[in-house]
Amino acid sequence: MPTRDFYEREVGPGGALYVGSPETVAQKIAANLPLLGASRFDLKHGMPGMSQTSLVSSIELFGTRVVPRVRELLAVRAAA
Q1: What is the pTM of this model?
Q2: 2 has pLDDT over 80
Q3: How far, in Å, are 36, 37, 38, 76 from residue 15 at the CA level?
Q4: pLDDT digits (tens, 9 = 90+) for 20-72
């Protein structure tokens, strides 16, 4: 299990964890893809202690809300 300090550090703007609302996660992905020169992004959708219900919900939100929002944000930035 991650410690609280690790979690707090990693959920911040420079951290490796993409945690929060679909909008928060989409904003973080959209900000980091261009910085990395990446055209793809993949998440590990689970963590120790996460329930199966939470895992399934996370995957569903990623596909139905996060991915479309990331595409929208990247398109707006490309057009600017």
Answers
A1: 0.83
A2: no
A3: 14, 17, 17, 24
A4: 999 999 999 999 999 989 988 888 877 788 899 999 999 999 999 999 999 99
d(CA 9, CA 46): 18
d(CA 26, CA 45) in angstroms, rounded, equals 14
Sequence-separated (6 or more) residues with CB below 8 Å from residue 22: 61, 62, 65, 66, 69
Token readout for 43 is 């998440």
Instruction: Pull the structure tokens for residue 80.
Output: 């600017």
User: From CA 4, how far away is CA 12, in angstroms rounded?
Assistant: 13
Q: Which CA distances in Å does 17 have to 39, 43, 56?
A: 19, 9, 18
